[in-house]
Design brief:
The chain has about 120 residues and is mostly helical. Helices cover about 65% and strands about 0% of the residues. Bound molecules: zinc ion (ZN).
């Protein structure tokens, strides 16, 4: 069941903006993402659709679960490290809200039994 409240939608916008910024700056893309970044983007959106915390979520970086598979996690870390500091200039509103979202306690995954989470991780 996709979670699609304002919190998840904002996280999607933030992640998409960071990947876009990274691809533009590092891969020279204009408008469309390169294939590699598009794959990462789609994966990130899918993870957020399935986030067990839903509207209660903190930022992915602060989350206790780390639902990304290792290869994708490494790629998104590179993107965050590169694009993160540039966000304040390019997307100041999203950047500030992201910092505030990160202060939120991780919350409890009310709608995700542990078994489902474990299965999700190996996907
Ligand atoms: Zn790219």
């Amino acid at each position: 069941m996709p979670t699609n409240g304002p919190r998840i939608r904002r996280e999607k916008r933030t992640v998409a903006a960071m990947i876009e910024l990274y691809c533009h700056d590092e891969h020279g893309s204009q408008g469309d993402l390169c294939a590699e970044c598009q794959t990462l983007h789609d994966y990130a959106m899918q993870r957020l659709d399935r986030c067990p915390f839903g509207e209660e979520k903190t930022t992915c970086a602060n989350c206790a679960i780390h639902c990304y598979k290792p290869a994708m996690r490494e790629r998104v870390r590179v993107v965050m490290r590169t694009a993160g500091p540039r966000m304040i200039w390019r997307h100041p509103v999203l950047a500030v809200r992201h910092v505030l979202d990160g202060r939120r306690k991780a919350g409890t995954a009310k709608n995700a039994p542990p078994a489902e989470r474990a299965a999700d991780r190996t996907e």
